[in-house]
Each structure stands twice: as C-alpha cells, then as structure tokens.
Amino acid sequence: MNKYHERSCPVSLECNCYILSAPPPLEPAPCYLYFCPFGATCHVNETTRQPVCYCEQKCSRVFAPVCGSDGAIYSNQCMMDRMSCVRNRKIRRVSHGTCGTSPCSSFLF
C-alpha cells in the first residue's frame, strides 16, 4: 500500500504496517466482587483458582482489655475482631475493660 505525502519518501523508508488484533478480554480476578465477611481477606486457591476467605489479622500484644458481646474478655480490640472473623460471627465491643456488671447498675433511675 503506497501512501502519498506532501513530500515523497524514498522507497527504502516506507513502512510495512501490520494490523494487530486486540488481545482477548481478561477474565475477572476470582476475588473481584467476592465478599469475605467479618474482616476476612480473599485469596485465590492456587489449585482450584477459586476464592477462599482467610482470617489473617496480626494483633499486637498490647493489653487493653475489652468485653465482647459474646461475654468473653479479649486482651484488645484486634483480638476480639480476629475471633469474630475466625468464628464467622459478629462480636461487638460491649465495654472497655472486663465484662461484668456496669458501674452504674446500682443506681435507680
């Protein structure tokens, strides 16, 4: 195919153009739009290529106790959140410190 320009090109500089086909569409990543509950993280199983949820929170050893809605005392908020993930159920903080009666429970309103 010859193209004409305002100035003609020497034959040795003419280019041979190739039309490249578009690459095939990419499949969505297995974790795309996959929801992992309770703070879990989605990872792809290398064998099955299926999404899998993992609880991988790493918590510090700082002691700042919290009382969970399951009645358990956790050493800190992160440990409670991690247990919520592992047990696959919602555990919320009821109070800071140990579980037990509220300091105001003896007051009558």
Outline of this structure?
This is Follistatin-related protein 1. The chain has one helix at 77-87; strands at residues 41-44, 51-54, 66-68, 73-74, 93-96.
What does this structure look like?
The chain has 109 residues and is of the alpha+beta class. It is built from one helix and five strands. The protein has one helix at 77-87; strands spanning 41-44, 51-54, 66-68, 73-74, 93-96. A three-stranded antiparallel sheet has the order 4-3-5. The chain is elongated, with a radius of gyration of 31 Å.
Task: Please describe the structure with a list of short key phrases separated by commas or semicolons.
Prot_Inhib_GrowthFact_Antg; alpha+beta; 109 residues; disulfide bond; Kazal_dom_sf; Follistatin-related protein 1; elongated; Kazal_dom
How far the N terminus sits from the C terminus, by CA atoms, comes to: 94 Å
Spans of at least 5 consecutive residues whose pLDDT stays below 50 are 105-109
Kindly state the mean pLDDT as a whole number? 83
Summarize the helix and strand pattern as letters. Answer: EEEEHE
For the report, how would you describe the main beta sheet? 3 strands, antiparallel
Side-by-side strand order of the widest sheet: 4-3-5
Quickly give the structural class: alpha+beta
How many strand units? Answer: 5
Question: Per the principal axes of the C-alpha atoms, what is the gross shape?
Answer: elongated
Computed CA radius of gyration, to the nearest angstrom: 31 Å
Helix content: 10-25%
Pfam families: Kazal_2 (PF07648)
GO cellular component, one term: extracellular region
InterPro entries: Kazal_dom (IPR002350), Kazal_dom_sf (IPR036058), Prot_Inhib_GrowthFact_Antg (IPR050653)
Protein name: Follistatin-related protein 1
